[in-house]
């Protein structure tokens, strides 16, 4: 019901409403219970499994031949990095079932549930899938399960990536996360991804460029000063507003080769160009019309 109610509110009502609600001294768990602030839907076993598998397949790191499914491991094992796991640490358990030996899960805060009933439901789901269950129901805490699966949960955002060893990650993925990275941290993110990715490693990031107010470009209506100020940045609808072309350039400047297997476009601008902040009015249609894309990142191959 809360989700349906939110959909009825126009963007210009959501902005002050979310700003006001975000200032109240109430925990994230309270807002999540009302459906007003949520960090994705990766606390649903089917959704978490499908997302990880789809990203791994698209990145070419998942072997689906024969009766078994699993990561294409090397003699050194297989390490996974998820950016923005959100409301659960399901990906570490799923990755272990698929043969990963290490999983890092990096987020901007400790949003993941501690409810073991949720994780037991995931284990039951994996059994039904015919996958090797990486743990038993005798594990009584989330952190014990995470450790059993070779998982590490870090909650200080981009800065946490500095804790990962150089050239330690075989496969990195995110789902509608990169657009939420603070703008001032994005260059650091690309540099860290380059640093932690193994030679031959690959990233698959699904980026959603729609605003989180009404599904258009309403976030581009505001000046840089207003949008990047603490009031807006901490209100639950923040996106960094880095556009498609600029984000690809930033990947490449960090030394990452970027291919684009999926680019989704609007048929026409969902928000009138005349209503956009001057900094965005000057962008060409081919950039503004991109509503989302998948970026596959690898180390650039040296030439010469």
Characteristics:
304 residues, disordered N terminus, 9 strands, two-stranded antiparallel ribbon, Rossmann fold, alpha/beta, single chain
Give a written overview of the molecule.
The protein has 304 residues and is α/β, with parallel strands linked by helices. It has a single domain (41-64, 76-298), classed as Vaccinia Virus protein VP39 (Rossmann fold). 35% of the residues lie in helices and 19% in strands. The protein has helices at 2-8, 11-22, 28-34, 45-59, 90-97, 116-128, 142-148, 186-196, 224-227, 230-233, 244-253, 278-281, 285-288; strands at residues 62-63, 70-71, 79-83, 102-106, 151-154, 169-175, 197-208, 256-265, 290-299. It has a 7-stranded mixed β-sheet with strand order 5-4-3-6-7-9-8, with helices on both faces. Strand 1 and strand 2 form a beta hairpin. Helix 4 packs across helix 5 (90-97) and helix 5 (90-97) packs parallel to helix 6 (116-128). The termini are far apart.
Furnish the topology, listing elements before pairings:
Blueprint lengths: L1 H7 L2 H12 L5 H7 L10 H15 L2 E2 L6 E2 L7 E5 L6 H8 L4 E5 L9 H13 L13 H7 L2 E4 L14 E7 L10 H11 E12 L15 H4 L2 H4 L10 H10 L2 E10 L12 H4 L3 H4 L1 E10 L5
Parallel strand pairs: 3-4, 3-6, 4-5, 6-7
Antiparallel strand pairs: 1-2, 7-9, 8-9
Helix pairs in contact: 4-5, 5-6
